[in-house]
Amino acid sequence: MRWKCVCSYDGTDFNGWQSQPNCNTIQDILEKRLRFIFECPVRVHSSGRTDAGVHANYQVFHFDANWEHGSDKLLRAFKCDIPKTIRVFAAEEVDDAFHARFSAIRKQYQYHILEGDASPFDYRYVWNLGNRRLNVDKMNEVAKIFLGKHDFSQFGAKHRDSTTENAVKTMHEMSFFRSGTRIIFTTEGSGYLYKMVRILVGCFVQVGLGNMNSDKLAATITGQNKNCTDFRKECAPGHGLFLNRVYY
Questions:
Q1: Does 230 participate in catalysis according to the annotation?
Q2: CA 139 to CA 133: how far, in whole Å?
Q3: At how many degrees (to 10) do helices 70-79 and 26-38 cross?
Q4: What's the CA gap between 194 and 140, in Å, rounded?
Q5: Phi first, then psi: what are they for 145, rounded to 5°?
Q6: Is CB count within 10 Å lower at the N or C end of the chain?
Q7: Which among 77, 44, 74, 37 is positioned nearest to 59, based on CA atoms?
């Protein structure tokens, strides 16, 4: 039996999604719980691997195991002996052809930025810019150029899967919305390279601060600028990023 599950988590205290030797990852914690439930090792596969400190409102994963007691009892079993900062809130049996990563057709991320001082209840979930102010109109102008199908190879960090992953992605939404001192970036696309959202946000913020030439940035994604600029150094902090939705 294949089970599709949806979870949310506060990534602050974890070393990301993917299993690591220290076992302080979302995947490790879920697999430890599944091993207790089924009394054997159970591997989980996610829609994507969020980095250390990154949060999720809607992360999808699947696993294969025989469970004859229905989804409600499975969800209750997940509630025991896992941190309160992780919650599995949906489960359903699916066809064996379903794969949490490879069946996904679109993902949505949001990134939260705050001008001024963050409150004690907010600082873990925003990139706090302090006294710096952003030109959101300018950021939206350049973000629109990234819509559509492009090669994003200059906006992905090196990773062991980087040499095999297709860098051509289709972006359906790239926009900033201001509400007072909070700025929320929403992006929805066919897929994302390693750290791609954070690198893009970092670049757009530098444009908004007046520290980066927007024409040069735009020319890079349209193929007019062939210079090998290292945009990876602009990577925004992980704690402002949320995986918001996965579509199948």
A1: no
A2: 12
A3: 120
A4: 23
A5: -70, -20
A6: N
A7: 44
The candidate with the shortest Cα–Cα distance to 241, out of 186, 190, 203, 192, is: 186
Residue type, 213: N
Question: Residue type at 167?
Answer: A
Tell me the three state secondary structure of residue 219. Answer: helix
Alpha carbon distance 127, 236 (integer Å): 8
Going from the N-terminus, what domains does the chain have, and what CATH number goes with each?
Answer: 2-94 (3.30.70.580), 109-247 (3.30.70.660)
pLDDT 10s digits, 223-232:
766 566 678 8
* pLDDT digit string, tens, across residues 90-122: 999 999 999 999 999 999 999 999 999 999 999
Contact 217, 203 (CB under 8 A): yes
Side chain identity at residue 35, one-letter code: R
Catalytic residue selected from 51, 81, 137, 215? 51
Question: Token digits for 9?
Answer: 């988590």
Tokens of 56: 């999720």
All residues at 6 or more sequence positions from 242 whose CB lies less than 8 Å from its CB, including other chains = 54, 55, 56, 57, 109, 110, 111, 112, 125
For every residue of 112-150, DSSP letters joined together read EEEEBPPPTTTGGGSEEEET----HHHHHHHHHHT-EEE
Structure tokens at 195: 């750290």
d(CA 123, CA 127): 8
